[in-house]
Design brief:
71 residues, mainly alpha, 2 helices, 77% helix, rod-shaped, cytoplasm
């Protein structure tokens, strides 16, 4: 994430990624525009993956805590 840009939510990143993919699939862009869209898509995919990894980690911790509690 860029220091001058606040972190996006998962939903915001996913929605923008869908739009980037739509534009790339539609075509009609210059090579430079396509490369910029691709790069932005990579950034957004990384953001989404970070959110998913964080959610997976939180879930694993919650499950471990639940399993450690005596019945």
């Amino acid at each position: 994430m860029s220091a001058d840009r606040p972190e996006m939510t998962y939903e915001q990143a996913r929605e923008e990624l869908v739009e980037v993919v739509r534009k790339l699939e539609a075509g009609g862009t210059t090579l430079e525009e396509s490369l910029a869209l691709w790069e932005r898509g990579e950034e957004l995919a990384t953001t989404c993956q970070r959110w998913l990894d964080g959610a997976r980690e939180r879930l694993a911790k919650a499950q471990a805590t639940h399993e450690e509690k005596p019945n």
